Inverse folding.
């Protein structure tokens, strides 16, 4: 293990990160690659807004615009928001429950590399004959008739990165069920761990429908099957159902971790325990459960009939109840607390009204008859950007700022952070608030341009100006990250001074084994309880002993590269003039299954950190 | 769990109790095993008779299959023992999600 005999230099660091199975390093990998994809998706958003800034614009062609919106949506959802959240979960959740790592460290690494190479496959489409252009929903009748290989990149890229996400979800579930430290009962788990738990369950149940849908799409496009081709007896609506059975839980997969992050931040900076903790847990589980009952509200105009529409409309409105419980709990958490407006707290406070606005338009859209009016207009675009940006992205920015010291051991600059916050918040409302009205004035979604004289010019220009504000905010954040990393001022255990949960009881960044002795959790907000009794650290729940750690491995990356190679063979297999595709598929799968075979037959028992190496002077003093 | 380790170093402690438990367990397993075989025979016999309506046979065979799955999970895979609450929760929520999907396909997609 590298931490024992640390080699220096770029190559050694690179090799270390390629082979790591440490949840904290995998978290950093998730954050870096998710951040890169976030910038890519952001650039695509900027291009979309430039194209729409003035009427009759010819900044890009209609075809390129379709590719832009497809890749913006797909990248932001699958390759930016979800991985960054998975990164924060990886970094924080094991520390919050007092575990030394996740349950399956090897799979954790495999999950990351699958996601990363899936994202690379998807984005290579830009350079290999055109990106997917059927929208992020890729509705079947459109995507099957899409020319070129764009949609094939979509199918295979999402399939590979979907495997990675599924693996990550299962891993977190097993970790939370089995690896909580002594005393950490379910109802003492921090809120972020609870949301991670529910989200992982949602991933477990929601991703298989996507896998099925993508497989059917793969067969339709590559082998001439007719699952979605109505002319040949198929049914194009099946794709929509499968996609939204996945797609609706997916939006809860995105928003629930953000809820968890804000719950932690609001409690910390109000110096109060989270108001209504048990009702928060209940609301989280209920949102997760109801999330599976509402997918057809994306399909009100498909023609399912009034009864089906009514059922799904009512179910959708029911979700407002647990969400409302959460909103009030956050407000009551701040009530009477001694609130400190740090950067994460600013995000949290502004999140509440921003997200509520998205929720209110959600209820408007849930009314099926009204939805016939809103459908496919900019009103919908405004709605989901209010919940995704006003909820998830604010959550991500808040979470990164809040947990930055725990992950990297340095504090981001507060002043620059406040600049980022204000630019981003103002830009966000400037961009998307006006889009509600654009929708009500009749501007349809997914149009690459519009004619002058319809009253949309000023509003679109305002929207584009807002997007520039958001871009400035993100650029300031990047500058902040660079300055902070160069200065490299180290911080202690609890840099926010009011940390409540276990992760703040260990050094920042934590040692690779996290906890020298597993801590004893004596209640909710375990570290806060100890602090209130005047103690500096947690009471250990076990004597100092050897710690069993897993070895790093290069095999996950090998397994993934095999699938990466094979996917290019599968992509071009339908072209009659390309004879090299079948050998490429075979070589790729041989790499994958060969690596899996090596993993299966080679025993790897990990290693032990010995008690003597863990003891510091204080321990020895006690022992002697 | 059923086979929880005792805290005592004495291997004979609770031996009598555990032996009785195991005998009980064995009895349950033999009973369920014979019932499962019996159910399978019923299923085959119904199909072989050719006189019964298929609209009777199909639901009955499905019902017998469900009972067999329950036997399998609860008696042979020990789900009736303590410590399987999480597993049960996930199985049943997965079933709920899956069956609702099937129900929707049967009612509003294909019909």
């Amino acid at each position: 293990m590298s931490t024992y005999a640390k080699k220096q230099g770029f190559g050694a660091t690179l090799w270390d990160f390629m082979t790591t199975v440490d949840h904290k390093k995998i978290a950093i990998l998730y954050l870096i690659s998710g951040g890169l994809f976030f910038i890519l998706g952001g650039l695509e958003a900027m291009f979309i807004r430039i194209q729409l800034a003035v009427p009759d614009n010819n900044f890009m062609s209609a075809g390129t615009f379709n590719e832009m919106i497809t890749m913006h949506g797909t990248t932001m959802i699958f390759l930016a928001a979800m991985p960054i959240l998975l990164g924060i979960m990886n970094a924080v959740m094991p520390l919050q429950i007092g575990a030394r790592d996740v349950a399956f460290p090897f799979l954790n690494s495999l999950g990351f590399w699958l996601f990363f190479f899936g994202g690379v496959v998807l984005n290579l489409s830009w350079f290999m004959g055109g990106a997917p252009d059927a929208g992020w929903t890729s509705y079947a009748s459109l995507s099957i008739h899409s020319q070129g290989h764009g949609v094939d990149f979509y199918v295979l890229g999402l399939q590979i990165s979907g495997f990675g996400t599924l693996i990550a979800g299962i891993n977190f579930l097993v970790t939370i069920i089995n690896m909580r430290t002594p005393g950490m009962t379910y109802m003492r788990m921090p809120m972020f761990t609870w949301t991670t738990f529910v989200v992982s369950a949602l991933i477990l149940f929601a991703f298989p429908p996507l896998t099925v849908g993508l497989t059917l799409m793969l067969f339709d496009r590559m082998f001439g099957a007719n699952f979605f081709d109505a002319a040949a007896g198929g049914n194009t609506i099946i794709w929509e159902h499968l996609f939204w059975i996945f797609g609706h839980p997916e939006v809860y997969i995105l928003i629930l971790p953000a809820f968890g992050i804000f719950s932690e931040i609001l409690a910390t900076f109000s110096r109060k325990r989270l108001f209504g903790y048990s009702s928060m847990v209940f609301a989280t589980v209920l949102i997760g459960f109801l999330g599976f009952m509402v997918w057809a509200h994306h399909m009100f105009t498909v023609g399912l009939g009034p009864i089906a529409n009514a059922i799904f409309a009512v179910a959708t409105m029911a979700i407002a109840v647990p969400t409302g419980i959460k909103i009030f709990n956050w407000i009551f958490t701040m009530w009477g607390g001694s609130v400190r407006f740090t950067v994460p707290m600013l995000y949290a406070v502004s999140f509440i009204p921003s997200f509520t606005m998205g929720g209110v338009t959600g209820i408007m859209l849930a009314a099926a008859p009204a939805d016939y009016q809103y459908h496919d207009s900019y009103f919908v675009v405004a709605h989901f950007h209010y919940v995704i940006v006003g909820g998830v992205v604010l959550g991500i920015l808040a979470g990164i700022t809040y947990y930055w010291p725990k992950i990297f051991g340095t504090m981001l600059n507060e002043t620059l952070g406040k600049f980022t916050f204000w630019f981003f918040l103002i830009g966000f409302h400037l961009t998307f608030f006006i889009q509600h009205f654009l929708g009500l004035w009749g501007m349809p979604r997914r149009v690459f341009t519009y004619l002058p004289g319809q009253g949309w010019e000023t509003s679109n220009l305002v929207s584009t100006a807002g997007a520039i504000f958001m871009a400035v905010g993100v650029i300031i954040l990047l500058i902040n990250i660079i300055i902070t990393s160069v200065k490299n001022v180290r911080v202690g255990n609890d840099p926010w001074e009011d940390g409540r949960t276990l992760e703040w009881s260990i050094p920042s960044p934590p040692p690779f084994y996290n906890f020298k002795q597993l801590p004893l959790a004596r209640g909710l907000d375990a570290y806060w309880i100890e602090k209130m009794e005047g103690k500096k650290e947690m009471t250990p729940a076990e004597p100092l002993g050897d710690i069993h750690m897993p070895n790093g491995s290069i095999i996950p990356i090998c397994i993934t590269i095999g699938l990466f190679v094979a996917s290019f063979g599968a992509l071009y297999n339908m072209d009659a003039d390309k004879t090299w595709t079948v050998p490429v598929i075979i070589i790729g799968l041989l790499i994958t299954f060969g690596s899996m075979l090596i993993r299966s037959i080679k025993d790897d028992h990990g290693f032990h950190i010995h008690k003597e190496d863990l003891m510091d002077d204080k321990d020895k003093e006690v022992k002697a | 769990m059923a086979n929880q380790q005792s805290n005592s170093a004495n291997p004979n402690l609770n031996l009598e109790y555990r032996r009785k438990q195991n005998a009980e367990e064995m009895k349950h397993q033999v009973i369920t095993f014979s019932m499962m075989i019996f159910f399978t025979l019923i299923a085959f016999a119904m199909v072989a008779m050719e006189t019964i309506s298929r609209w009777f046979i199909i639901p009955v065979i499905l019902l017998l299959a469900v009972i067999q799955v329950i036997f399998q999970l609860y008696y042979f895979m020990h789900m009736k023992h303590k410590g399987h609450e999480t597993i049960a929760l996930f199985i049943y929520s997965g079933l709920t999600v899956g069956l609702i999907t099937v129900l929707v396909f049967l009612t509003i997609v294909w019909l």
